[in-house]
Amino acid sequence: MKRNTRRFxxxxxxxxxxxxxxxxxxxKTVLKCSSQWTEYMTGSKIASWFADEIKKAxxxxxxxKIYFSESLAKAGENLHLLKSGAIDMAEMxxxxxxxxxxxxTAANTIPFGFDNICEGSAIGRAFMDEIPAFMEExxxxxxxxxxxxxxxxxxxxxxxxVKRLSDMKGKKIRAWGNQMPRLFAAAGGMGVSxxxxxxxxxxxxxxADGTIINTDGCVAYKLYEVAKHxxxxxxxxxxxxxxxxxxxxxxxxxxxxxxxxxxxTAERARKRELTVTYKADTEARKTLKAHGVQFHKMxxxxxxxxxxxxxxxxxxxxxxxxxKGKGQAARDTxxxxxxxxxxxxxx
Length: 347
What we know:
The chain is α/β, with parallel strands linked by helices. It has two domains: 28-150 and 240-278, Bacterial extracellular solute-binding protein, family 7 (D-Maltodextrin-Binding Protein, domain 2), CATH 3.40.190.170; 155-238 and 282-343, Bacterial extracellular solute-binding protein, family 7 (D-Maltodextrin-Binding Protein, domain 2), CATH 3.40.190. It is 51% helix and 16% strand. Helix 5 packs antiparallel against helix 14 and helix 13 (313-323) runs antiparallel to helix 14 (327-343).
C-alpha cells in the first residue's frame, strides 16, 4: 500500500510538472510580422532591434518573428492580412493603401513636404498623439500603429544623368500613391507604380529610367548596379515612412504590462532611428561613390520651375477630405504639419 502511494505521489509530481511545462509553453506569444523591406534597410535593423528588446523586456514571453523581403506576404497584401488577423504585425507603407488610410497616407506621399529627417520623425509621433482621426482610421481597419520609421531624404536615382529639369522629359520614374506620378508629369516625365521589391528588375530591364529612394536604400537593394546617377537636389520626399503595425485584437490580448513595454520600446526605437539613419547616409555615400555612382544637383532655377508647375497637393488633399466628411481632421493635420516644419530643427 505504501509502495502504491509512493508511486501515485511520484506520478502526480510528474503530471503536475508536465502541466506547468505546458502552461509555460502556451504562455509564450509568438507574433508573425510581415515586412515589405529587405533586412538590410536601416529601418529594418531598427525593427529587428525592436523585436529583440521586446523579447528581452518580456523575459521571452513575447517574441516577434519578422519575415523580411515579402517572404510572408506581398506589400500590397499586408493591410488585408493584418486586418483579418492572418498575420499579427506588419512593417508596411500606408502609401500603398490611400483609399483605406487617407489621413495617414498624406504625409507619407505628398512630395516636397518636409525639410529634414527630424521633422519626418517628429510628425508621425505628433499625428498619433494629437490627431484623433489619424488613429481612428487605423482602428477602423482593426490595426494599430506603434511607431513610424524614418528614411533619409529621397532623391532621383537614374540610369542616365538628370542635371537639368529638361533631362526629365520622357523619363519613366518609379513612384507610388496618387501624387508622385503627377509630380513627375509636371517635370515632363511619367510615374510608374512599382513595389519596392521590384525596383531593381524594373531598372535593369529598362521598364523604368529611374526611381526615387534614399542613399542607404540604394545600397540595401544594390541599385548602384543598374543606376549610376543620383540627383540629390531637390529632395523629392521626406517624412514619416512605413509604420510598425499590430493587429488590434492581438494588441488587446496583451496584458497591460506588455502593452506598456511595447509603447515604451516603440518610442525608444523612434529616437534611436534618428542617429542610425544619419550614420547610414554617410556610410552609403562612401559605398555608392566606390561603385562609381555620380551625384548631381539640379540648378535652383530649375527646381523653382518644377515646384511652380506642381499642383498644390496639400490643398487638393484637404478638399478631397472635405468631400469625405473629414475636412476638420485634414485642416488639423495641415496645421500640425506646418507647426512641425516651423519649430523642429535637427541638432
